[in-house]
Design brief:
The chain is mainly beta. About 5% of the residues lie in helices and about 35% in strands. The protein contains four helices and 24 strands. β11 and β12 form a beta hairpin. The termini are far apart.
Length: about 450
């Protein structure tokens, strides 16, 4: 048995038996919405993750990995959610770990208060009104080292700093900012990452088998195989807006969603654009086989009162049979689910829109369809903003059955930005936002 397998089993036993490792969830009263108007979704159940010290959680998986967790609790597991095969059980994945921003001399610095944190696959069970952690798998390199959540490349990724933004930390080419998760039929996992952006194949025990990145990324020094198999145009991803959503079609193909429009030809164009991209990837061929243009609704439609187009994001895509997907368009305060079908006629892979010298770029087109781009047709299924009891920043969605979804929010480990994120002793001033699994009944079957 490997040390990692043993540590994972220790975590599992501590959760199941309630031993002092504190990897157990606190009870929180369930919320049931009042009757929803016809056509609106209805919250039918909620469950909440309790306070699990991050150092305790991390060191149970990788002993000695975290020296000081600065009072941070386990969170961030709401980056995605995927059914685990048993009723109420799901696979989730953390993002890169606690991080925030502090201005120093007028410029924002990205802080990593717990740099030893290693992103993890976390198996949860919804039991009554609590979320229980029943297993956890650390992400490791070929030689068994933690990948960490630290940025990969100087000059491309933000420089990481300590919790107070005073001291720069080292970059790590192994680092992953994990988001979406699915589990394949062979028991391995597929994850997506924002840094590359990349698609990551992971063994059942958490070892990175292959990281697929854009052509031309030139990521060197990683302690696992890195394959440049994605379109080079993805090198223009916005910082912190790489791959966010991941779905597994019934045939086994994967669909990857770029969170936001590319910064093509520049950041201003990306911030103003409403056109992002989906990729179809064949695990058998180990290659991208199709690419699709996806058009957001105006930001004021998705989130009434919001006027900043750059707030639009895709955070989750969910396969609902055949080539059909639910796509979550969101801001931090609102979310709507659109139904799309991936058709051969919509494929733009290898065309002019993958050439970053094309002018205007796909992202600059005010009306891509009028310009001849075969944009995916979509149909609104539900506006989650109209369902009382749905929390903000929903990043993960799982299909429970034909008319019910499980939603999970990203609580950012309870962190906020600014100098007030930590007290004078360097302990986290928690935001009070909890990780919650929310069951929603849809107004129609999907």
């Amino acid at each position: 048995m490997s040390p990692h397998s043993a540590s994972r089993r220790r975590v599992h036993r501590s959760v199941a038996t309630g031993l002092p490792l504190a990897v157990a969830a606190a009870l929180v009263a369930a919320t049931t919405a009042t009757a929803a108007p016809a056509g609106d979704a209805q919250v039918i159940r909620t469950a909440t993750l309790g306070e699990i010290p991050l150092g305790t959680f991390s060191n149970a998986l990788l002993p000695g990995s975290v020296g000081d967790d600065h009072g941070v609790h386990l969170g961030g597991i709401g980056s995605d959610i995927y059914p685990a095969g048993h009723k109420g059980e799901y696979w989730t994945v953390t993002d890169r770990g606690p991080n925030g921003q502090i201005k120093v001399d007028g410029k924002k610095r990205r802080t990593f208060p717990v740099p030893g944190f290693d992103p993890a696959i976390v198996k949860i069970r919804v039991s009554g009104d609590e979320v229980e952690v029943i297993d956890a798998i650390p992400l490791t390199t070929t030689s068994g080292k933690p990948v960490t959540g630290l940025p990969d490349q100087s000059g491309r990724d933000e420089t990481p700093y300590t919790y107070d933004a005073r001291t720069a930390l080292s970059f790590n080419p192994n680092g992953l900012d994990t988001e979406g998760i699915v589990r394949a039929a062979d028991g391995t996992f597929w994850l997506v990452d924002e840094y590359g952006p990349s698609l990551v194949h992971v063994s059942a025990r958490g070892k990175v088998l292959t990281r697929y990145v854009p052509k031309g990324l030139n990521l060197t020094g990683a302690d696992y195989p890195v394959v440049e198999a994605l379109p080079s145009v993805l090198l223009h991803r916005k910082i912190n807006r790489g791959f966010e959503g991941l779905a597994q079609l019934p045939c086994g193909d994967l669909v990857v969603a770029l969170q936001s429009p590319l910064s093509l030809p520049d950041a201003s164009a990306g911030d103003a654009s409403r056109t992002t991209r989906l990729l179809r990837f064949s695990p058998g061929k180990k290659a991208v086989t199709a690419e699709y243009a996806y058009r957001f609704d105006p930001v004021s439609v998705v989130d009434p009162g919001e006027d900043d187009t750059s707030e639009l994001k895709i955070s989750s895509v969910v396969a609902v049979g055949g080539d059909r997907l639910l796509v979550e368009e969101r801001t931090d305060k609102a979310a709507r689910l659109q139904l799309v079908r991936l058709g051969h006629r919509n494929d733009i892979l290898g065309g002019p829109w993958d050439d970053d010298t094309t002018a205007p770029s796909l992202e600059q087109l005010e009306d891509p369809a009028a310009a001849g781009v075969p944009v995916l047709t979509k149909r609104l299924v539900v506006d989650l903003g109209k369902a009382s009891g749905v929390p903000g920043k929903i990043e993960g969605i799982a299909r429970v059955n034909r008319d019910t979804l499980a939603l999970i929010n990203d609580n950012d480990f309870g962190m906020t930005d600014g100098t007030g994120a930590f007290d004078a002793e360097g302990r986290l001033v928690d935001s009070g936002i909890k990780t919650t699994v929310t069951y929603v009944r849809l107004p129609e079957d999907v």
